[in-house]
Amino acid sequence: MALDHTGNSDTKARMWVVLRLLQALPAACWQGLVADRECIGAEWFRFLRRQGIRRAVRIRKDTVLDELTANQWFDDLQPGQFGVIAEKAWVFGEWMRVVATRSPLGDLVIIATDFGVWETWRLYKLRWSVEVTFGSYKDRGFDLERTGVTAPKRLERLFGLVTLAWLNCLKVGVWREGQVSIRILAHGRKAMSLVRYGSEFLRNVWRWDLKEKAEVIGVMMSPFLAPGAA
């Protein structure tokens, strides 16, 4: 769905997107909504509650919670530690649990949530996969932002095509990783993402190794396994 403006979405735009999603996926099917610090505000939090959607939203350090800022509540938290305000706090007009942790680099992450402490962190960590996906759509991958297309319908079609390409790169990357593991660098992380791995392998097959083309096409046409399936 193409929005009619650039930059971050405002509250009205986010509400419109959620209402569109609810037409296809009722709130009872949602585990919850996870969002970063740009997606805050009393109207937004109230809207989600009224739609029956549970929330796990990162808030800013200067957010006032019962006369203290969020940063003051968790100022003594050490890297790797987790903390929670004992009772629910008044956050943007809603009573919510507030939990926090400090990253190994010292960044304080504070989340207003309708979930328990550990369920909040399990869900919030999944948000990072969204950031990685956006990065591969943009300058670290398909470079979608450089398009000169501005017409909303054409943008939607372009975004759909890029999404299909991204999914196929991911499929091939997962398949290829099962054959030849991605190299691990000195800091313990993989040299590249599964999407990049699949993309590079696809380019190599299409250019030089035509014998594997049929097998790769079969991989791209096969469905993803359901979570937890063997």
Automatic annotation (TrEMBL):
Classification lineage: Bacteria, Thermotogati, Deinococcota, Deinococci, Deinococcales
Residues making up the signal peptide according to the UniProt record: none
Entry-linked Pfam families: DDE_Tnp_1
GO biological process: DNA transposition
GO terms, molecular function: DNA binding; transposase activity
Protein name per UniProt: Transposase
Organism encoding this protein: Deinococcus aquiradiocola
Transposase IS4-like domain boundaries: 5-166
